[in-house]
Amino acid sequence: MTSQRKSVVVVGGGVFGLAFITQMIRALAEKPLTISDGSGAIVNLAVDITLIEQRDAAVFLPIVLRMCVEDHNEDYIKPYDRLFANYPSTAGVGAVVKASVVSIDEASNVVVLDTGARVAYDVLILATGATWQDPSSPPTDKSDIYTYYDHLRARIIASTNVAVLGAGSVGLELAGEIKSKFGASKNVTLVHRDALPLSSRFPHKFRTKCSAIMQELGVDGRYNTSGRDNGDGTVTLTQNGKDTIVHADVVFNCFASRPSAPYAPDAWKDDAGALKVLDTFQVDTSSPSVFSLGDVNNVNELKLASNARPAVSTVALPNVLAVLKGETPSRYYIPPAQDGMGMVLGKRHATGIAWLPLWGAVVLPSMFVLRKKGEDMHALTIARMLGY
User: Fold this and answer.
1) Range 142-256+337-385: architecture per CATH
2) DSSP 269
3) Where in the chain is the domain with CATH 3.50.50.60?
4) Residue 60: predicted pLDDT
């Protein structure tokens, strides 16, 4: 049997990029791709997979909030060196390139790296996620990532007053981790512009539950209030046009993230900077060979790690395999009708929201969420995907 080679390039080694690669490895190991050469002969299709990632170790953002108060560097920060260990050579070659993409030459099917290298692709997967501020913006080298979280943890330990600006899921979970670990020894002020935590896309009773847990933990919730870090150990709180200055040894800006696609042509992006995608996860360009997954795209859904596996297995992977075989993608993604999520607010408190038939929105009890994800926020699942 003759053979051909195809190249799949995945940019971004976060949850969605890893989910795609690991599921593709499994699929091709079980059933290699074949195509007809037009004369009736069957051709084996070897698929080389390249991950381009600016970091040399994976950082699973949900667990970093726990890492701000406890040292779990060795437990959860794992390199990419074993990612392709189970990819059989008969299926293709796997490689990890530590670099950032600076531009895309769509006409030539090439990504240009900050090293000056050019990497050709037959299919391109863009899964570069979103841009956050501290504590979710670690550096690129593994040793520096360790130092980054050691430094944040030391600052929190040495502090008396901590201000968390923004009471979305990140702000809530960070405030919960600090109070759960340190109790009354840390004064935590949580600032949010709305009357309740989270956004209005969530049911009122869920937001109320989050507020109640913060109060139980001893977090000073300042709602209907905006906050500004003055950079001098103080924060300006503004409510009803009146400013109040509070002291803060450490300030965390936990505002909403921004899609991270500076490398992409402006025509590919919407006004918020997210990559515009079709229901097939193909980027809305002239080329059918470019896909986008996760936080960087404009799919109207809550961006959750738990969405990665079903999005990849039911839609993205079948469509990519179709393109590789010269076929038209036929799987279409339908975002969840309602937002469900679980939040771990320290080691002893948690809550969540789920939508059940006949019942509608149900606030999940603390013990249920803690049993499901409280120990490691599923960070060990990511480590297993990496071969650890």
Assistant:
1) 3-Layer(bba) Sandwich (3.50)
2) B
3) 3-132+257-324
4) 92
Name, in order, each residue with C-beta under 8 angstroms of 243's C-beta and a sequence gap of 6 or more.
236, 237
At 190 the pLDDT is 98
CB atoms within 10 A of CB 384: 11
Question: What count of other Cβ atoms lies within 10 Å of the Cβ of residue 41?
Answer: 10
The two three-digit tokens of residue 330, written as one number: 């036929």
**Helix extents (H) in the chain:** 15-30, 61-67, 73-76, 142-158, 169-182, 204-217, 308-311, 317-324, 366-369, 379-385
Q: Residue 183 has what pLDDT?
A: 97
CATH 3.50.50.100 positions along the chain are 142-256+337-385
Instruction: Tell me which residues of the chain have a pLDDT lower than 50.
Output: none
If phi > 0 it is left, if psi is from -120 to 50 it is alpha, else beta; for residue 166 that is left
Alpha-carbon span 250 to 255, nearest angstrom? 16
Task: Kindly give, in sequence order, each residue whose CB lies less than 8 Å from that of residue 336, ignoring residues fewer than 6 positions away.
Answer: 301, 302, 307
What CATH architecture is 3-132+257-324? 3-Layer(bba) Sandwich (3.50)
Q: Give the Å distances, CA to CA, from 11 to 17, 222, 295.
A: 7, 39, 13
CB-based burial, 323-337: b 16+ in 10 Å, e otherwise? bbeeeebebebeeee
| pLDDT for the residue 359 | 87
If you ran DSSP here, which 8-state letter would residue 281 be given? S
Q: Kindly calculate the radius of gyration of the chain based on its CA atoms and give it in whole angstroms.
A: 22
Q: pTM, whole model, 2 decimals?
A: 0.94
What pLDDT was estimated at residue 1?
Answer: 59
The phi-psi region of residue 35 (left if phi > 0; otherwise alpha if psi is between -120 and 50; otherwise beta) is beta
DSSP code, position 168: S
